[in-house]
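Same chain as my last thread, 482 residues:
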Amino acid sequence: MVEPVEELVKKLHDKNWRVRWEAVQALGKIKDVKIVEPLIDVLGDENFYVRCASAKALEEIGALTVEPLIATLQDNTKNKYARELAAEVLEKLGDTRAIEPLIAALQDKEGDVRAAAAKALEKFGDSRAIEPLIAALQDKEGDVRAAAAKALAKIGDDRAIEPLIAALRDTDSKVRESAMEALKRIDRDWYRSKWAKKQVPDFISALRDKNKEVRETAAELLKEIEPEWSKGEPAKRQLPEFIAALHHKAWEVREGAAQALGAIGDARAVEPLILSLGDEDWEVRKASAKALGEIGDARAVEPLIAALQDKESGVRESAGEALKKIRDNQAALLQSYPNILCAKCLLRTEKKRAKVKVLKTIDYVVCRRCNSSFYLVKGIREVVGTIGGDIGDYAGDINRLYLSLWSEEEKRARNADIDRLEIIPSVRTNYELAITAVWNELHNDTSRPRNYLKKIPVAIRRGVVLSKETIDLLRREFGPVS
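reply #2:
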């Protein structure tokens, strides 16, 4: 015998959830407009099974429930369960009257309701929801952001590409995955877009994010978007920030900074990375050792040898691999020695030997001043210093390099390890001032042998007129003058 509707409605308020659940099941079979409101009221029931049964019954009744469900979705006096299930049932019914209310529900105070609204909007795929869904990518709840990304994929509008690219840096893996799938659906070549190129600096910044997955995702995407990112201006501009991040309180950030500095490969990071070999966290020490190997500067040889004694095997292995890379980089330099010049200091090099083990050593070449191998240029057999002329800072070929030792504009001399000195005709050069300044610069470098200048021949080109005092200076302090 079928119970009257009135009796079943009364049972919806029974203390026993099983009684309520059975009443909902029975009412769902009636499919009458009179039972819609009672079932709507049960959407907020404290029991999960009762709520789900009510939602299922309302779905089966169909179009008659749309307006009451919209009213429930918009009623903030209803609890979150009622509003969330209202959104879910409206999604399944697929009635377009629900689109605007669902868009408004993206602002609901409860995250579960906002997520249900975004999910429902995915089904409709209506372009009216684009801007609100883009805004929802910034929601504080990861489930809402992920659902918004999926809904934007369904709509497929180009306006969503840029914010979805930004969502690839989200700390929630579900959001990153949803954003990636959305981008692939909207435009499979999204990584070639102007929006992707625009966000390269942001992805570079993400390489020092605390979240390891965010860092790894950023690194992979940079390879797709801008394969040469590490050589570009955005990376160079952020170098100081990465160096500063080596001192961040979170070890994850320090590790990410070390990894990025290795990829960028700038010599300015060498000394900070050497200091990070003493970091309290072994993963930072490991990343720093690896980065030093990628940069390849011989300044790291001795510190890396010391790191071979680290208590953590991972650090020791990383230091060993870094030393192998530096040794391999040094092979060509050792072969070219001593015909090498440091492009930064304009000085020649010196050969060093470091002991790795009892019977094992590493030979390497560094600038005699900055102790770096990063700026070394091979094959420079002769360096000719010039005063006057118009060669600019330097000129020549791989065997002979001409270096201007005097700037008439700045009235400044510069130091360099030269093999010859040439005085070249110039209508602008104050030779007396220039030659005296260059002599002082070369003479004051006490790192050279005392008789260094006397071995440098001087050639005065035709057309150069010098005072007797200046010629006497050249003959007294330098080698043969011709």
